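Supplementary notes for students who missed Thursday's class. We covered one full example, reproduced here. Read the sequence, then the structure, then the short commentary at the end.
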Amino acid sequence: MEKVVKGFLCDWKATRQRTLDWIDGLSLEQLNQRLPRPGLNSFTKHIYEMGEVQKVYTDVLRGVEPDLAHIIHLTFDSSQVVAKTKEELINFLNDCDREFYSVIDEIYNWEEEVSVFGENRPKYSVIELMIRHETLHHGQFIAFGYVLGINFPKSWIDTWALPVK
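Structure (token representation):
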């Protein structure tokens, strides 16, 4: 089990780094530009939603039932989320990671089940859910990136074998 958890944590770190590479590779204007996607209508809003979902999964690892009210509001109710600086986004995600890793350090039984949206799952699988969620957003970033003519970070080109032209 230890190898599985280490593998998931390594994959999570790489997934989050790709998100940070995305932020680094775009201008603040690009991060805040309006996207033709209902609800998650900017890269900034996607990034905040990704962090908020990570917070929910961190709570799940603590044994707390997920509360999606804040995420639902962010995703569907709020009209525009604008970052003032790229550092604001990076700091937000780093704070989410710090909290996540502090909880990870306290887990000794990764096979213990927790409730995830009414379904019992072993704790180690929560990390896989986080990776899957963030990767879903990465896929949307790629689609919008091609439409908007965004230059992809090298890590994205290498990871996803993206054609650069």
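Commentary. The chain has a mean pLDDT of 92. Residues 2-160 form a domain with the Four Helix Bundle (Hemerythrin (Met), subunit A) fold (CATH 1.20.120.450). If anything here is unclear, bring it to office hours.
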